[in-house]
Amino acid sequence: MIKKEYEKFIPSENEIKTGEDLDLKNPKNGFIYDSKLSKQFNLDFHRMDYFLYTPYRQPEPYKLVDAMLLTAEFGRKNAQFISQFAHQGFTADPLISLQPLIKDDNYVISNSMMDNEQNIKRPLIFIEKTMQGHCIVTAKKTIRLIKREDGEILKGMTVSITRKTFFIKGKDGLFLENHDKKDQLVFVITKKPTTTNPS
Which of 175, 4, 181, 150 lies closest to 85 in space, CA to CA? Predict the structure, then answer.
């Protein structure tokens, strides 16, 4: 396990842009979208598992399938702010910093989620509202390594990435990034022993 502090995530112009130009009028795959939230959030809403967590009033995180509940819980402007972080781009930078930690130059990081050999979990986003009204966004993603030359999977090994960022509520009730607290980053490398059939 590797733990480190990481520079705060800064949403790009595309990640700030709302999803109002997307066709989100009708629910798709059982998900209800919210065009007022960021475009990237809406694009990833069915690709990731989103959970809303208010530990001071519910024991377990609640899985989000209706994006409008984010606004109901936090208000429109704060929900828009959260959505600029809560998408797959939030774990993209850590993948870049992870590559130098891989000792074997023959292998690189794969961004694919599934393969025939291993069942890689879907990326997760936990949106936590604290009792003080602040917010913590945590993204979790499991990846695999592949051979640089032919894309063959390194069997039995996965790498999980967890990134956590913190928002504080300002005097006007709107969220601000907590610049006194850097993002928290955790890498966990799991290697399962390979088995061979006795001859």
Answer: 175
Tokens for 21, please give them: 């130009």
Give the separation between CA 58 and CA 5, rounded to whole angstroms.
Answer: 29
**Contact (CB, 8 A) for 162 and 185:** yes
What does the DSSP assignment read for 67-124? THHHHHHH-HHHHHHHHTTSSGGGGHHHHHHHGGG-S-TTEEEE-----SS--PPPPE
Question: What global pTM score does this model have?
Answer: 0.84
**Nearest C-alpha neighbor of 83 from the set 115, 45, 47:** 45
pLDDT for res 117: 44
- Token pair in block for residue 145: 């390594």
Q: Give the pLDDT means over successive 10-residue stretches in the chain (199 positions).
A: 85 90 72 93 93 92 94 95 94 75 69 50 91 94 79 77 93 83 86 55
- Distance separating alpha carbons of residues 5 and 94, to the nearest angstrom: 11
Tokens at 113, concatenated: 């989620």
